[in-house]
Amino acid sequence: MARPPFSVVHLAAEYWPFARTGGLGEAVQGIARQQALARLPTVVLLPLYRGARESGVPIKPLGGMRQVTLGSSVERVQLWQVVTQDRGAPMVLLVDHPASFDRAGIYGEPGADYPDNARRFALFCRAALEALPDLAKPPVVLHAHDWHTALAPVYLRTLLADHPAYQSVAAVLSVHNAGFQGHFPRESLAAVGLPESLYDWRWLEWYDRVNWLKGGMAFADFVTTVSPTHAHELRTEAGGFGLHDAFIGLKDRFVGILNGIDPAVWDPDTDRHIARTYSGDELSGKPACKAALQRTYGLPEHPRTALLGMSARLVSQKGLDLILGGQALSTANAQFVFLGSGEPRYQAALSEVAAAMPDRIVADFDFTDLREHQLLAGADVLLMPSLYEPCGLTQMRAQRYGALPLGRRVGGLADTIEDEETGFLFDEYAPAALDTTIRRALGLYEEREAWERHMRQAMARDFSWSCSVPRYLEVYHRALARLGRQ
Questions:
Q1: How far is CA 241 from CA 121, 184, 330, in A?
Q2: Can you list the domains of the chain with their CATH numbers?
Q3: Cα separations (Å) of 338 from 161, 302, 335?
Q4: Is the pTM value of this prediction over 0.90?
Q5: Which residue has the higher pLDDT, 486 or 109?
Q6: Dist. CA 376–CA 460, nearest whole Å
Q7: CA angle at residue 240 from 238 to 241, to 5 degrees?
């Protein structure tokens, strides 16, 4: 691939392995790394959180202290560069402002968001923009991710619109989860240095509040989301989280590009975290991984009892109400392992059913990457009955490990699961619909040859990030082409 005649700078609140609460950090890391491998000059900026500072990752200062104006105040920030020997990695920079980011959490602590989130992430956006001319040669694509960085396109096209250093910067905004939009009081505009004139239905005003995601979409040259089906859903009243008109108004400046996974990390043929390696050509290691998982969680080692796993944040989006409201947990001839933490009400409910049926149900709230590898290697089925799922990554990983995903026909699940070929899909968001689909999966599981054929089909799917690079390059070229028409 020829070297593209531009640079890309990603702004994100999360980036694996430095900061992650869900799929955002892994997705941004996957996009940026694949772009760097494709010889696209790539820089990533994220805040220097306490967790990243304490992780032991080597960093070095990049330049001196910088002054950043935010509203009526001037703040001092420092950029730190991650030191790496990985030539295929993008340049990763951490924005250091201890008063804003040296905290126990990323967005808040149990029970509440930080009350100054608007100011914290506005400062991050301003600091990134101030440093931008020193970080990348023009032309530049500024690629912001989710509401936390959505003010970057707003600042770019308002406060910095006439600044010569930003005339060759195009703005792309990726919406990973439109369920989180950055809603703040009207007075937050002045606090983050934006004019009152932007409190307008065309820009940031939304039902008597300021909406950062809406504002970022309005000022971006191009907007993407994380799967083609989700792009369609966001244009509907039912699936647009109140912003469907804004998504419709983008017209051809809005597309869905499917996320991916790293096939080198998620490969049962080379995975050092699992009990025994295996592949689509040689499945004999899969039963050993299942037995190891059953031993780990104290489940009876029944090789022909289907094991259904779930690895997810325990929140309403993930379909816990369907699982807890249905009959499968109490009646299905199967074992269940739930891995992940989240809302106390779901943890309490899963703890109760696990205590009542310890020989069939396990709830593990201590998520680690290692345990997810072991769960996918040992499970026969992965549960993802999501209310909505913009893309999802776990169903892609599961297929690589021969754990057939069972999910609703929404977002990226619809784009990556082939019903009764590489997994199972259902439509209605109802416990009975999930129960019926679980029975369908368990029925097929009894047909051993057919099941193994479906496993091999799933394991052969290509979900690598390399598939998305050409689509992002197309978006970047289209965004840059708009610069002359601003």
A1: 22, 16, 34
A2: 7-260+466-485 (3.40.50.2000), 285-463 (3.40.50.2000)
A3: 50, 18, 10
A4: yes
A5: 109
A6: 16
A7: 95
